[in-house]
Specification:
Largest interface: A-B, 43 and 42 residues
Oligomer: heterodimer
Strand content of chain B: under 5%
Number of helices of chain A: 11
Strand order of the largest sheet of chain A: 1-2
Largest sheet of chain B: 2 strands, antiparallel
Low-confidence stretches of chain A: none
Distance between the termini of chain A: 42 Å
Strand content of chain A: under 5%
Number of helices of chain B: 13
Distance between the termini of chain B: 25 Å
Order of helices and strands of chain B: HHHEEHHEHHHHEHHHH
Strand order of the largest sheet of chain B: 1-2
Shape of chain A: globular
């Protein structure tokens, strides 16, 4: 156990954190504004990864691939909103859960038909393929640093968008009183569609960035979706600030537990037992974290409408 | 007393007669696999009814119900694995040996389901609405990963059961017809219990908390305790269904707890008719038959199943049972 390992794992945690934030921001915006729970959010993550993996080799550039994939994913999101979800805003949450569960089955099968059941490979851009020495003696993959950079940039962009622009003002207004917003002559329907497109694009960006690290495969959206739920519940539903705090907390806790628990347990028990127990404890860490936060603050750390 | 003037009573009697007659009919037609299929329907029906007890009557949208099914299944699986392995399950603080005695493992599966429901419910019920949905889902996912990490018990591959649970010597559970009737009897018994439960003072209090929790609290009902009790009963019944499922499939695996399973259970309840006792059984039948039929039709059957779900949610609010039993006079 040394400082270098801690720095490396800290960066890994930060990287997972910003990625979860990209997912959580879209999900929590849609929830905060439309009071809508969208399980199919993970599908946009998957679609983003698949589109990038298709276009990047075609255009011979990872960045161009992402730039083509994002608008397409946003369009897919807006189409889904207009066709399927628009009717569900005023329905119970249970109806929304069921309908979007149906959408997941649909999207997974669609991807399986188009791209086949085998995982496909997406390589990071060549100029980010190497490592960077952040502090002497700690080489760190440049691509993971790029993810952190992109994630933080998006967080800053969202902050400016929501607090400083007219669109952001409308988004905030829509979250607190949609009838009034409509009465003031704002096209609420269009606003909702746009927010949904934005959420889908953010999820697709997360998927595109995750593509070179994880395998691009059917169902990849589900595991990250459940992590995102934990993030949102910890952060407080409907709050973008909470999503950021929750994402960083979950990213750090998960990464640190996986790296440190087996080693710590080796101090008190035989290695084989320690590794097994450390692994299972580590995979449960964030859920225990969530239970602890909820026992303390049932509405999360930064509830949107406190 | 049954009221024979109502469509509901007739529907239940006809359904029961059909289920009783199914094994001999299927065998006579040479389609024995229907017995196996309907055994699965009965077992999932039991799980769906247990979910409806909290979902339909208590308004608690548990998105992690498959976890309790999985816990029940693993209880049977682990105890059976130790019989085969001839090693004790634990040696401390007391010695527990593996067993396949159904009178031990089935109640134990229900007990474990109930215990986990007590812990998960105690935390989850502090919240409502979407948070409750997400938290139950997250806890179920936690148990799913725990099951995967159980390397001793097969990890991701699960446990293949070499033997089924043993009831009394006269009842051979390997015989599919016998096992079918055992499942039917358990489901019928649980339905009767539920019928008493939802009509009781306790049941009324839980239903009242669904409609207006604040008012129930003002009336002096400790709604948290009532809801938690309902949650535990539901978890125990789901655990029992898991025990049956382990025996039906002769296999236990983490997939039993996957969140898709939890989603499917909700779909069964809504498809059949939320807030009715017999609806979820119909929903389980409809879902599994639809799955069977679509899978026969095309390899990519889920591309149809998804939109069908969407369609059912948007248009068919009271489910199949609502159509069969006719308009509910008490409703609105």
């Amino acid at each position: 156990m040394n400082t270098l390992l801690l720095v490396e794992q800290g960066l890994n945690g930060l990287q997972l954190g910003v990625m979860l934030f990209l997912m959580a921001a879209g999900l929590t915006l849609v929830f905060g504004i439309m009071d809508m729970i969208n399980l199919a959010h993970g599908s946009f993550y998957m679609v983003g990864a698949y589109l990038t993996a298709t276009f990047a080799p075609l255009l011979d550039s990872f960045v161009l691939g992402v730039l083509v994939a994002l608008p397409l994913a946003a369009l897919a999101g807006m189409a889904v909103e207009m066709v399927a979800l628009r009717t569900l805003y005023r329905r119970e949450h249970l109806d929304q859960v069921l309908a979007t569960f149906g959408l997941i089955l649909f999207f997974n099968e669609l991807v399986r038909i188009v791209w086949g059941p085998q995982p496909i490979f997406l390589s990071p851009p060549a100029w980010l393929g190497g490592t960077v020495e952040i502090i002497p003696g700690v080489p760190y993959p440049a691509f993971r640093l790029a993810i952190i950079g992109v994630g933080l940039a998006v967080a800053g962009f969202l902050y400016l968008l929501i607090t400083r622009t007219r669109t952001g003002m409308l988004i905030r207004a829509g979250a607190s009183n949609r009838e009034m917003l409509g009465a003031l002559g704002v096209d609420v329907k269009r606003l909702y569609t746009l927010v949904f497109g934005l959420g889908a694009a953010l999820a697709a960006l997360a998927g595109a960035m995750a593509g070179p690290i994880l395998a691009v495969q059917v169902g990849m959206g589900e595991s990250v979706l459940i992590l995102t739920f934990v993030v949102i519940v910890i952060g407080g539903l409907g709050s973008v600030r909470g999503a950021l705090a929750g994402a960083l907390l979950v990213g750090m806790a998960d990464t640190m537990a996986r790296a440190l628990l087996p080693t710590l347990l080796r101090a008190v028990m035989p290695p084989s037992q320690a590794d097994g127990m450390g692994a299972s404890l580590a995979s449960m860490t964030i859920y225990i974290l969530m239970a602890a936060v909820l026992a303390w603050k049932p509405r999360g750390l930064f509830p949107a409408h406190a | 007393m049954p009221d024979f003037s109502k469509r509901e009573t007739w529907a239940v009697l006809i359904g029961l007669a059909f289920l009783l007659a199914l094994p001999p009919l299927a065998d006579a037609m040479g389609k024995g696999f229907y017995v196996t299929l309907f055994t699965r329907i009965l077992i999932f029906g039991l799980a769906a009814v247990s979910l409806d007890l909290i979902l339909g009557y208590g308004g608690m949208v548990s998105f992690g119900h498959a976890a309790f099914v999985g816990i029940g299944a693993y209880t049977v699986g682990i105890l059976s694995w130790h019989v085969f392995d001839a090693s004790p399950v634990i040696t401390w603080p007391l010695l527990i040996e593996g067993t396949e005695n159904a009178f031990v493992v089935w109640p134990l599966a229900a007990l474990m389901g109930g215990l986990f429901a007590l812990v998960i419910g105690a935390v989850s019920l502090r919240t409502t609405g979407i948070s409750f949905i997400m938290i139950t889902l997250a806890f179920a996912q936690m148990l799913f990963y725990l099951a995967i990490s159980l390397r001793k018990y097969g990890g991701e591959d699960g446990i293949a059961l070499y033997d089924k649970s043993e009831l009394v010597p006269a009842l051979d559970l390997f015989d599919r017809t016998t096992f079918y009737y055992v499942c039917l009897a358990i489901l019928a018994a649980f339905l009767m219990l539920c019928r008493r439960l939802v009509g009781s003072r306790f049941g009324m209090a839980v239903r009242g908390a669904k409609v207006n929790e604040r008012r129930m609290k003002a009336l002096g009902f400790p709604t948290y305790r009532y809801k938690l009790t309902a949650f535990v009963i539901s978890g125990a019944a789901a655990g029992l269904s898991g025990a049956l499922l382990a025996n039906a499939a002769e296999f236990v695996g983490p997939a039993y707890m996957s969140w898709q399973r939890s989603g499917e259970l909700i779909v069964m309840v809504v498809l059949g008719g939320m807030g009715s006792l017999f609806g979820p059984v119909l929903g389980a039948a409809a879902f599994l038959l639809l799955e069977e039929w679509l899978a026969d039709l095309t390899e990519h059957w889920q591309i149809f199943l998804g939109p069908i779900l969407l369609f059912v949610v948007v248009f068919a609010r009271r489910g199949i049972w609502g159509v069969i039993a006719g308009p509910d006079r008490r409703e609105r």
